[in-house]
Amino acid sequence: MAASNSAQSHPATELRIVLIGGRYNDLPSGKSSAGNFILGQNVFNTSRRTAQSETRQQEVFSRRVTVVDTPGWWWGSSREATPKLDQIEIQNSVHLCPPGPHVFLLVIPVDLYLPELIKLSLKQHLELFNADVFSHTIVLFTAIAQCSDEEIESRIRTSPVLQWILQQCGNRKHFLNLSNREDRDQVKKLLEKIETLITNNGFRHCSVDRSQGETLRKEMTDLTERASRRFDQVQKQRKKLKLQIEGRLQVYF
After folding, report:
1. Cβ neighbours around 179 below 10 Å, total
2. Which strands sit side by side in the sheet containing 173-177, from one edge to the other?
3. Max alpha carbon distance in the chain (Å)?
4. Separation between Cα atoms, residue 230 and residue 143, nearest integer Å
5. How crowded is the C-beta side of 111, counted as CA atoms within 13 Å?
6. Beta strand extents in the chain (DSSP E only)
């Protein structure tokens, strides 16, 4: 309790946040929408899947808040099933808010069904960061419809997987009703919880290996160049095939 009071009476001047989470069936993770809600502006594109980690920054309640949005993985899939470029983008997210993030917000839609296999998927994907991510994580429940605290608690009580996730994260959680953009008090309380977490972590951000950033950028460049070469080859093959078909049609007629 003392840490919470300290965080509220001496708010941090800068907060660095990384949004993480997965997708399940046709239900998006909601990370981009949560990022827009926190920053109070539509700065992340919610009309498409996030393919690259992106950083946006705004002043929120007298704090300079940096939010990094990341590609989502499939909740039910192993890390090996996640495309290599997505893995690199997720890893690179911590290098987009130097010297490192204060908090990871694990975004989970309230109505998301969480089977047992999600536990392994989550652990494997968080290992991409090579750090003690859980000690810097708050579970961020989101909903686009009105949802009471009791409904959320009931959801947790009936979901062993949610209980396990919360235990890994020190039972830290927050709820955002994304349909009520006018209620900025939701964001203020979230920032206060983040500041409490920072205080409890001895004012340390998540450690980041700077040398890894250079390696990741090189890997991304190599993968992008290889993909570009493959695309060019496919285009040439299609053009060649088209010319062959057109030539045959001319001979036929």
Report:
1. 13
2. 54-60, 63-69, 14-20, 103-109, 137-143, 173-177
3. 87
4. 40
5. 11
6. 14-20, 22-23, 54-60, 63-69, 73-74, 103-109, 137-143, 173-177
Q: What tens digit of pLDDT does each residue of 70-129 get?
A: 999 998 899 999 999 999 999 999 999 999 999 999 999 998 888 898 999 999 999 999
Is pTM beyond 0.85 here? no
pLDDT tens digits, residue range 161-184?
999 999 999 999 999 999 888 899
Tokens of 209: 């290996």
Q: Identify any residues that bridge with 251 across adjacent strands, giving them in sequence order.
A: none
Structure-block tokens of residue 213? 């950033």
- Per-residue model confidence as pLDDT tens digits over 19-54: 999 987 767 789 999 999 999 999 999 998 899 999
* Contact call for residues 147 and 182 (beta carbons, < 8 A): no
Output the six-digit token pair for 203: 């004012």
Structure tokens given for 106: 């694990």
The amino acid at residue 54 is: E
What was the pLDDT predicted at 3? 41
